[in-house]
Structures are given as C-alpha cells and as structure tokens.
Amino acid sequence: MSKRIIVIGGGAAGMAAAATAAKNGGSVTLIEKNRILGKKLLITGKGRCNVTNYCDNDCVIKNITSGNPKFMYSALNLFGSYDTYAFFENLGVPLKVERGSRVFPVSDRAADIRNALEKYMRGSGVFVLNERVLSVSNDLSVTTDRGVYNADAVVVATGGMSYPSTGSTGDGYAFAKSLNHKIVKTRPALVPLFSRREDCAPLAGLSLRNVGVRFYDKTGVRHSDFGEMLFTHEGVSGPVILTASSLIDFDSGDFTLAIDLKPALTEKELDSRILRDFEKYVNKDFQNALSDLLPQKIIPAIIERSGIPPRVKVNSVTKEQRASLVRTIKAFELEIKGAAGFDEAIITAGGVDTSEIDPKTMGSKLVKGLYFAGEVIDVSALTGGYNLQIAFSTGCLAGLSCMGGNNEL
User: Fold this and answer.
1) Which of 60, 49, 67, 58 is nearest to 12 (CA)?
2) What is the C-alpha separation between 175 and 152, in angstroms, rounded?
C-alpha cells in the first residue's frame, strides 16, 4: 500500500513537495484553501516571476538574512538553482538570465511558471482538495472544514503572512505551535519604508540609480548599501530599501536614512564639479544651475535644504554655501517612521524555528512524520529569486524525505 501523504498549501513549496512525493510512489493529497493553486506565484516579480537566481549554493546561502543560512545546505545540494533552471526549461518554459543573475521566463509571464508546475504536479498523480485546514494532530490526522484525513506523513507548506490576500495568513504557524514547535517572531520583510509625507510626496515616482544609502540610529550606522531606490508618496522603496527592511527591524526605534546622491565623488571632487557648473551658468539663478548635476524633481528639495536662496546668482554663492550644498547632496536625509505591513511584504521574516527541524530531511524533531517547507520556516532571503529557490529546495527535500529518501525528482 502506498504511503499516504498530505501536503498543506498549494504554493511553490507545496506543489514541489507534492510532486516529488508522488513521483516517488506516494499517494499524495494536496489541500489548498484557495480556488487556484500558486496564487502568490502569479504576483511574484511584479507578475513576471523571478524564478530563481542563476548562481551556486554558496551564493544563495550568502543572501539568506533570516534564520540559520547553513540550514539550507542539504536542501540546496538536493535541488539547487541550476536544477530549478533545468526543471522549468524541461517543462517547456524557456528562461532568461537578467541583471544580478535573476532568472525570469522569456515570456515575462508568471502564469507560465505556475501552470507548468501545476501541470507537472497533477501529472504526477497528486489529488487536490480545495478545503481549509483547521488543525493538524500528533497522530498526523488533518481536520479541514469538510472532514478529517489520516496520513502517514504531513508536509506543512502554508507560506508566511505576506500578501494575505493570496491566502498567506499564518495558518502554518498555528499548526506548528499546536504541536509544540517554537515560532521565531514574524515580521514583514522586503517592504517599502515610511517617512515624512511632506518630504517624499513631492518626489514620488523619482527613481535613483547608483546612490549610496546609510541607515543609522542613536547607536551609529546600522546598514549601508549602494544601488537603486525609489521615492513613493509615503516614503521610499526599491532594491536597496527592500534589502534594508530585511536586515533592520524599523519598528524597534528611530532611524534616519542618509542618501548619497553622488557616491562616486568625494566632497572635494563634488565641490569642483559644482564650480564648473556654476561657471557654465554664471549668469543664471542658483535654482537654474543644478540641472546637469541632479534629477530635476529633487532640485527644489536640495535647494531648500542647502539654505541657499533659489534666486541668488551663482556667482554670488559663497564657499560656505557651496559646502552646505555639498553636504546636502552627499547626505540627503529622511526620517524613517517605520516599515510597511504584511499586505505589502514580499516575504515574512521569522517562522518555525529551524533548530526543531532536521535540515537533512525538513522533518520535525518533535513529531515523527511531520515536515515543513517554504516560507513557513524561519529562513528568508533578499530579493533576486532566492526566496522562491528556498521554496523549491525545501519542498523537494520534504517531499522526498517523507517517502523515505529515494532519489527521484
């Protein structure tokens, strides 16, 4: 008789676990409360689906920011980024590698990834139920809003709490907690940050490339980075901001963001550059002499913060005023008021404590036959396809392990 496997959650990790277990002879039932599978997959990468990052396992591990990165070694050795790339190409979904080794479908359609994975899973013999799981017991019985199902192994792959509209409402944490698993405090990660609206609203939509950012509090600089960012009506977003939101708990205190608009120039070099521009626009007002140096949208804010009268002629700007302008450009500061919530979070930091999960199997150390996969575990990473890779890797390992560890994927 085939082993009875129940997988709870029909996202990337759940479908990977279900397909792997079925391929290895399991009688697999996947229970998903949404009407469709992979609902969150459809919105990843802004609807394009950043499938993975085309890099080696060490690279993935270096980009893990929550939990114990070394916990992922076995899962990645079983099914790493290159395996993910080959898997979807073999399913007939051509992929491409973009800047930062990010992998997307050539079609730029997340639905192609979701559809291919679902087709593969169903073709492997997985039976799908659209029911809401209410509880999981120590004897591996699963109670839903429609009945009770018994299993030889249960894989919890319910996701975290990010984008709750997709069904990620923290159910898996409740199941794990009821079985005496510890839950590392969860918080939204990879989210925009809030600042003073009067500072940011006039700059909304402005995208800055190749800027330096520093986040500091009363203890000093907490994080620095270089790259792209974006102003929103309520604050800031973009790659360097999302990264910072994963590394710092912005609800834990008061933080300031200092943006270096010209990180390639020292203060002395920037002053020389300003002098050259002033010579070029010698008869112009100060407010009309910065367009070669800065994006037009940020110039009014720079002028106001520099304290230099906007209509003063550039040949009347003093050395002290230029120094103020240089300081403003090298450290355009915003007071950070906090981070966005789970409704805007790409991922959830925190989750089921990895110290109570066997990294070689994804099996619970407390309940025999119970496994975890995906975002429900306290392992999360930066943007770039790493989080989906974690989902695929842990899903495959959990699905394989609950069938006894045979090696067919």
Assistant:
1) 49
2) 17
pLDDT number for residue 66: 84
> What is the token pair recorded at 3?
């082993």
What is the H or E stretch that residue 336 is in?
strand 332-339
Confidence at residue 408, expressed as pLDDT on a 0 to 100 scale: 58
Which CATH superfamily is 4-188+347-401 part of?
FAD/NAD(P)-binding domain (3.50.50.60)
Strands of 106-234, DSSP E? 127-129, 133-136, 141-144, 148-150, 153-156, 183-189, 193-195, 207-217, 220-231
> Quick one: DSSP state of residue 110?
H
The pLDDT of residue 387: 97
Residue 196 DSSP class: -
Q: Assess contact for 104 and 45: CB atoms under 8 A.
A: yes
Which pair of structure tokens corresponds to residue 39? 């609902």
Is the domain spanning 192-340 CATH 3.10.310.50? The answer is no
* Six token digits for residue 17: 């676990």
CATH 1.10.8.50 domain residues, the chain = 192-340
- In the chain, list all ranges with CATH 3.50.50.60: 4-188+347-401
pLDDT at 406: 60
C-alpha 276/C-alpha 273 separation (Å) is 5
Q: What's the N-to-C CA distance of the chain in angstroms?
A: 21
What are the residue ranges in the chain where pLDDT is below 70? 406-409
